[in-house]
Amino acid sequence: MKMWLGKKIIFLQTLLCFSIVGTNSHGLKEYHFVLKEAHYRRLCSSKPILTVNGQFPGPTVRAYYGETIYVNVHNKGKYNITLHWHGVKQPRNPWSDGPEYITQCPIKPGGKFRQMLIFSIEEGTIWWHAHSDWARATVHGAIYIYPRKGESYPFPTPDEEVPIVLGEWWKSDVSDVYEEFLRNGGSPNESDAITINGQPGDLYPCSKSETFKLNVHYGKTYHLRMVNAAMNLVLFFAVSKHNLTVVGVDSAYSKPLTRDYICIAPGQTADVLLHANQEPNDYYMAARAYSSALGVAFNNGITTARIHYHENHAPNKSPSLPYLPLYNDTKAVFDYYVSIKGLNEADPYQVPTNITTHMLTTLSINTFPCPENQTCAGPNGTRLASSVNNISFENPTIDILEAYYYHIKGVYHKGLPKFPPLKFDFNAEYLPLELQIPKKGTKVAVIKFGSTVELVFQGTNLVTGIDHPMHLHGTSFFAVGYGFGNFDKHKDRKTYNLIDPPLMNTILVPKNGWASIRYRASNPGVWFVHCHLDRHLSWGMETVFIVTNGEGDAEILPPPPDMPQC
Ligand SMILES: *[C@@H]1O[C@H](CO)[C@@H](O)[C@H](O)[C@H]1NC(C)=O
Ligand SMILES: *[C@@H]1O[C@H](CO)[C@@H](O)[C@H](O)[C@H]1NC(C)=O
Ligand SMILES: *[C@@H]1O[C@H](CO)[C@@H](O)[C@H](O)[C@H]1NC(C)=O
Ligand SMILES: *[C@@H]1O[C@H](CO)[C@@H](O)[C@H](O)[C@H]1NC(C)=O
Ligand SMILES: *[C@@H]1O[C@H](CO)[C@@H](O)[C@H](O)[C@H]1NC(C)=O
Ligand SMILES: *[C@@H]1O[C@H](CO)[C@@H](O)[C@H](O)[C@H]1NC(C)=O
Ligand SMILES: *[C@@H]1O[C@H](CO)[C@@H](O)[C@H](O)[C@H]1NC(C)=O
Ligand SMILES: *[C@@H]1O[C@H](CO)[C@@H](O)[C@H](O)[C@H]1NC(C)=O
Ligand SMILES: [Cu+2]
């Protein structure tokens, strides 16, 4: 604990970091994250929210390619908490990954946990967030990973970098929203605003003066480090009269892609260049939801922030809004995603072509009958649920990683089906109601170290077809294909991009369609796999992949001494 007070303070230019980051006696960077409540005023009212270090969005973590750093987490809040480093692959180190009851027991109020973040191939932007209940609504922040010292970006060095963290704000306490929908079995209340860097923007009441403003100089290039930290909304984002050039997604560089809008799903990140090359004026940047599922209510509001050209001396009171595709424009979403191409030609990390492990998992919204003596707010008085290959995941009471490592029996079961247990027309317009009720269980899939995996995520039309941003912990994967309808291995594999697919950690599976990923299972450990729409996660759309140990230095590291206990 005392070590960090040490020597060099890095990134002096960022005042906020001064108190929270230092280096320890081994020269490794150490951050200090204190979970605590702070009052924030939004939409004309104030409420206490859980934060890290009193900040919302939380502090930015900065690292260089391949670096290892520590984050000392101290829970001074009222609730159990865990923190996850989204997109940090943590080679051999699932211990610090964070999902509650998957790789650790929660850090109880008053507790501490020193988490080690091992960066490997990440470069660009990712993020961190709480991984217990719905705490991540307010407990999240960006992670910037710079090129190795002395090396440069694969694009001209931008003049400035700017965080664009998209989120959602509820006027109520988020833990009440969470408890309410789990209790009544219905859908959670919609958020009251979408936010850019914590601010709803000046189209919302009482939000004008705090609206996020980006001051630009004509001719300069701004590196937008974008994170979708929203709980339940896939978002479109655009800047009025300006193009956006995407140069990376999920902390892997991609071929420059210039568009007038981008799409970003919860869990995803993007490195985007904005050239300040238009008439010096004021412009809006804006985001709003993509949500095409029938009968699913969503926040259809629009969040804005302002871009002000330094050269403009007469700020425009009502700048124009950018063009954003309609909320149901599925084509706009997937036209964008299939246009993202990886920058992997020279990479040793190649797209697997010889697949040893095939999997196809259905992703479904489900219902359970309402328990006797209760009234339930789900469709036809049922309780909403969700599943992966018809298993609605139940959290165990001690974490799966410890159960696996110490051979504790009865905590989880192997044998998550690698294919749907029942073949049916997954996306038929009408499906028998009896298919809708899943099984409950804590089922995991075991994947042999070194396997080359092809995993097809298949959406179904049970209850309602909807898009799912599926996230894998502990690895990145190549997003090799997307399509609509039921996956047909003979026809659809021919459409894969095996040349330059992007390397991602979260893939948006189209409504009534499928998405296919490939990767080599080279990171031993216990890794969470889940939908990043938090309501689906809360209903059970998750599972765990246990990647076995390899030989020699391909084994899980020993646990740290301060693992939180259940
Ligand atoms: C959710 O919305 C309903 C209907 O507007 C309201 O009665 C309820 O208080 C809300 N719950 C929370 C936790 O805000
Ligand atoms: C945006 O890009 C398109 C296609 O490259 C181009 O036609 C258009 O002029 C660009 N617009 C701006 C504002 O740069
Ligand atoms: C999207 O919604 C608009 C207006 O609500 C409607 O006119 C249009 O037909 C819808 N498009 C699709 C593809 O469903
Ligand atoms: C594919 O992998 C299997 C199992 O590792 C191996 O036996 C086989 O030789 C490989 N085939 C090719 C073409 O590389
Ligand atoms: C339902 O309520 C009745 C009357 O209050 C009670 O006798 C019965 O045990 C309850 N059933 C369940 C399943 O809780
Ligand atoms: C899921 O499992 C339940 C229980 O075995 C069964 O009734 C239901 O039909 C199954 N649904 C699907 C889609 O496999
Ligand atoms: C609700 O009940 C109606 C009538 O039985 C049925 O057609 C519909 O599919 C049900 N919806 C759900 C989601 O269970
Ligand atoms: C907090 O975590 C401990 C350890 O797992 C557990 O026993 C306790 O029930 C949790 N508290 C709440 C409020 O969930
Ligand atoms: Cu989902």
Automatic annotation (TrEMBL):
Q: Name one GO cellular component term.
A: apoplast
- Protein name, per record: Laccase
Q: Identify the residues that the record assigns to the Plastocyanin-like domain, covering every copy.
A: 36-149, 160-312, 437-550
Question: Where does the record say this protein resides?
Answer: Secreted, Extracellular space, Apoplast
Q: What is its EC number?
A: 1.10.3.2
Gene3D superfamilies in the cross-refs: Cupredoxins - blue copper proteins
- Keyword Glycoprotein on this protein? yes
Signal peptide span: 1-25
